[in-house]
# Entry
Amino acid sequence: MTLKTEPFVLNFGPVHPSTHGVYRMRATLDGEVILDIEPVFGYLHRGIEKLAEERTYTGFIPLTDRLDYISSMSNNMAYCMAVEKLTGITVPERAEYLRVIIAELQRLANHCIAIGSFFNDAGAYFTPFLYMFREREKILDLFDMLSGQRLTYNYMRIGGFTQDIPDEFLPAVRKLLDTLPKFLDEYEFFIKENEVLLARAKGVGVLSREIAVNCGISGPVARASGIDWDLRKADPYSIYDRFEFDIPTCENGDCYDRYRVRFMEMRQSLRIIEQAVKDIPAGPVRSDVPHLVRPPAGEAYAHIESPKGELGFYVVSDDSIAPYRCHVRPTSLINLAALREMVRGWKVADLILIFGSIDICLGEVDR
Amino acid sequence: MEVSRNREYIYSQDELDRYEGRVIEELKANSTEPIPDPDEWLDEELKRNVLVTTVDAVINWGRRSSLWTAICFPACCAFELIAVNGPRFDLSRFGMEILRASPRQADLMITAGTMTWKMAPNVRRIYNQMPEPKWVIAMGACAISGGIFRSSYNVVPGYNKIIPVDVYVPGCPPRPEALIYGIQKLQQKIAKAPVLPDLPKSLRKGKQE
Amino acid sequence: MTVALDAKDIAGRVDGAVPGSVVESTVECILVDAGSLPAVAAFLRDTEDLKFDYLNYITAVDYYSYFEVVYRMTSLVHNHSVVVKTRCYDREKPAVPSVVGLWQTADFQEREIYDLMGIAFEGHPNMRRIFLWDGFPGHPLRKDYLQ
# Structure
């Protein structure tokens, strides 16, 4: 008596209870074990690259906010750096220091959500997530003080910032630097040796180094697989070469390592912010840039180490007030290329956890 | 034990994609006019006597105090919605901490994000799967009118082209306080709604399937 | 610091290894003939002192008379980078060979370029639309796309 079975295709629809957005997967399953997945995107494709050709250079900055909407300041920064490279504008010192402080605060806020939703996917429904949200609210309060907005800031401009920081900002940052390390210690105490987490995440979804390099993976996912590549050290932009910080890497490349790398990166970000807050000079925050920026004809590519990986903007200009072509190097789309390799042989519940540990944002995948 | 299958019912991925494309094109062709907002509670002709009013008030109190939200969050506004559920702006004091994955157990849909034409049939299907009575809050500029992406080729200019909307909450994204205000406005609307003539209201909403 | 290599030197070596492939080279980028792109890419990836094992991005730009496909590669080992471009002059059915066999990261990016620009990549195992639905009229990112 033989049981004839055959693989069947299960659709993880665009609407599913995960905070990552409208992402659809067609998984070919043999029982509960995954044989293959095929991702389907486009449910949030808003045509941002086409809209770039209608807006002016400065008018495109709000659209860049909505790309990776969890870490909007990083997107602004990458785009402004690309246009500044094209035009040859240098940013004043105070603005550079502020950019570093804001970028690292944004990295903290992003990793709060990344780690929180990783535990959400692992099954600890909402408690670690809400702990992280409590700290993220403190960081969002700082950004609210700067730009008036909590999520999509539109604060950076080509050549610096719109306006200088208010007086309460730096004391508030110092207060955050005092309280946040204790919170990270408390969180780690609860979570680090938890048996359920270790059983679910250790050894699950291993991404080897060779596949990671071939698939173009960058960011914490690559560093968890042992690739010692961080753009802040390998190709320093802005003034990152003046600060002292480490790049955490792990060897195994499983889900647990990706969580550990993000957690250690949060501590390193605190170090950078501390050094920057101590050394920030006085001065203007915006260089003399015409209101309607008109770069000379040419092209430029600028990339930064955003919280999710290498985010870059490739801008082509033809000496007019709107970009001729603006392409976003989408970190999340490229990081998804390895998903297929990582999930073969695991079960459905592991698929959700592995997918959550890559930490993608659908706004960047679909643009 | 041989388990045989009728091969005609197994579709290839290409056929599924082509079917999806046809559904989207059809929906796009038929959704040029906005669906009118449901506002029968303003109707003065529905006079009710005292006994029915008390029953109405009790039922409406039950309905508005425990709204369960269906998950439909495509984009950025989703994170403000999650922040509203978070520890600082606590939504469970309104009885709404449940974010049910299944629309069959939900009665409120907060549309938090831009809707694209590719996503539109799925949103319509989720709306159809919600049982009556159901309400929709359009959250954010993209949900009201397409927002900053209005001129794009793939963006639906507002959720009210596809589903009827009860409350519009402006903002990009709206602050959590604004969303809570919008939810309270919806609760006031539910408090005034007539309960008994439910059937004509659902027919007038243009429910399909 | 990632050194952006002087593309003229690399162009000389590429022309030596794959004769007739380099059309033009400036300091910033190498312009390669479309047909010999896989051979050039394999040379760049496998030569020991170049070792461009990481493909940053693939993108395409529509200049009205031709399409230009841009590749940027980085070597994680030696920490240097280069930009390679190729042009496609056909507007009806543009086609460029695919590099998916060399770098798996090209999979989604080439599908995206096919979807939005219409450039088909020969040799890609799954050349279908990725963002827009099957049956969408036209390719939106082209300059002559009318809504």
Notes: The radius of gyration of chain B is 19 Å.
